[in-house]
Each structure stands twice: as C-alpha cells, then as structure tokens.
Design brief:
Elements lengths: L11 E6 L14 H16 L3 E6 L7 H6 L4 H25 L4 E5 L8 E2 L2 H9 L3 E5 L9 H11 L4 E6 L4 E2 L11 E2 L1 E3 H6 L7 H9 L4 E5 L5 H6 L6 E4 L6
Parallel strand pairs: 1-2, 1-6, 2-5, 3-4, 3-5, 6-10, 9-11
Antiparallel strand pairs: 7-8, 10-11
Amino acid sequence: MDKKSVGLKYKRVLLKLSGEALLGEETHGVDPKVIERVSQEISALSEIGVEIAIVVGGGNIFRGAGLAAGGIDRVTADQMGMLATVINALAIQDSLERAGLSARVMSAIKINEVCEDYIRRRAVRHLEKGRVVVLAAGTGNPFFTTDSAASLRAIEINANLLIKATKVDGIYSADPKIYSDASKYSVLDYDDILERKLNVMDATAIVLCRENNMPLRVVDMTVKGTLVAASLGEEVGTLVTNESSHD
C-alpha cells in the first residue's frame, strides 16, 4: 500500500467510539452499516499514513452505571460493561479486516482466547507496523469510563490527537437537539470544559488530557471524510487544548 503522510498534522491518532454510536438504526447490538462506514473512514486514514488506535465503549450492550442503578453490584456491573466493549472491538476488527486492513484487538482484562492483552510497547509496535489497534475493556478497572480509558491510552501510546466521534458536529453550550439557541464552540480549553460543566467527557478524562497536553477534537462521525480532515488539521468540529483562543 502506497501511503502518503505529506500534509498530516497528526501522525498518530486515537479515536474514541461510543457503543451507542455503533447502534445505528438498530435497537441493540451493532448495526453492520455503521461498522462498515467506520471501517471506510479508518481505511481512508490509513491510506494517508495515519497510525490509528481505537477505544470503543460498550453502551449498546451493557452500561455499567446503568446496571448498577438497577441493583447489580457496581464492580460486577462495570466488569460486564468491559466484556461488552470486547464484543464491539471484535466486530470492528472483523470489519476492518474485511476492508483490507490489518487490525489487532488488545484487552485491558485477560481474555486470551479471543484477543491480546494490552501491553503498551506491543500496541505501539503494532501501530508502527501500520496495524489498527482496537483497545477494549476500558482501563480494566471498575469506576472508570471508556472516555477516561481513551485519554489514558492516547497519552500512553504518544498519540498526537484524541478524536471523540459523536453524532453532533462539535461541542455546544447546551444540547443542540433540545435547545435550538445553543451555540457551537470552534475552540475551547480544558478549563472551560470543567468550569462550564460541558457534557463532553467525564472530568477524569478531561483532566488527564489537560495535564498531559493532549489535544482533543470532537467531531461528527456521520459526516464522510471528517476523520481525514481532523488528521490534516482542518477546522472540523471543536478543538480543545490548553491554549485555545475563544470565539
């Protein structure tokens, strides 16, 4: 494969995909059309020479906090949620391989019959060889979200950019689906997120990014070409850094 990295602002990116984003038109599980579209976007990224890691959630199958609210022990509930992310990661791996890419699933909990253990150096080596690394089971610990896992893994693998893929084209002052007068931010800094209590990622994830100078871009995954545009440094979605000029 002839890869070009000319014009890339971010050589290595970590993409955070929520489990809910994989639902598509389905009521539960994974929508094959969504997985295929995601794979096409990632294939386009790989073609231009970007090294890609993915952290996937499991909310389309089980959400730990929701199960705990229903009476299940919180640690057990979170462990169930971690296993759900492994299911999603395997679905993504399969789709990526059918798209012609080489992919590896790495889990923060031991489940060696179906995937590798997450080992930072091995993950980096996979990326250097052009493989897509799908990181499952969050941090491997209860009480931590997959958003926190995405921030942690992005820092660990020395990613240049953390991309949070959503169904909204950036960060707004309020939920734009509910409030028509909500205003979109093109740039923010991490303190803004915390002070304004903007619902982007949980506070642990935001602080991790802030303390380690990890730029975050929130984009609409449903728009074709968004991931490539973000990796080229184009102004799509909302960029969050430690030194952002305000609108």
